[in-house]
Design brief:
Strand content: 15-25%
Distance between the termini: 12 Å
Oligomer: single chain
Shape: globular
Order of helices and strands: EHEHHEEEHEEHHEEHEHEH
Low-confidence stretches: none
Number of strands: 11
Radius of gyration: 17 Å
Helix content: 25-40%
Mean pLDDT: 94
Amino acid sequence: MTAPALVAFDLDDTLAPSKGVIDLRIADLLRALLRSVDVAIISGGNEAQFRTQVIARLGDADAADLARLHLLPTCGTRYLRHDGADFMPVYAHDLSDEEKSAALNALREEAERLGLWEPEPWGDILEDRGSQITFSALGQRAPREAKHEWDPTGSKRGALRDAVAARLPGLEVRSGGSTSIDITLAGIDKAFGMRQLAEHTGIPLTAMLFYGDRLDEGGNDYPVLAIGVPSVAVEGWEDTAAKLEALLPTL
């Protein structure tokens, strides 16, 4: 493809270790990208995670460059842009109280029935992210190694996703990260977020370039590839950094 007008990224295991802050090498690369093209980050993580993992590490970036950074937490159910002082919401598609309650109940009851409810987790298993309900099997603060060992084949997440989806026909239920299930309004996934990004920026999907670690069919980055966004598969933030170092001289 010709040089992209916008470069987009998944967050966990693409730009940063799961739930971890971006490395200074990634921060430097993002600042360099922002001087040339628009940059977007789309992830199942909530706004607070974006602020801790990314924004706090870009504090010395120029405001004009930050204006080209598009943040889409919770798979694009929220969209944040920099207004010259801070990142502020462009939109938010929140779940109703009734939808949240139904999702939380279904996740707990089905996880217990399937033997997937961890009695001693690292932090909360269930989280209300406003526009998304998230189940983290080992807790929100579980170490990366434990998370990767919990469900290497995806069978546990698949069984829980199918059981919960059967109870919530009006909502979107999908596998998220290595131990998570995400629930949003129907029809919302990363493809939705990328289409919103195209609509708000005027940049066509084919002029974007996306980096993600779960581009395999069934992975939570696959919907981006499926709608025609040129995509690059990566294996961790170090791989992303190496590939960005090769991309930057071409922009």
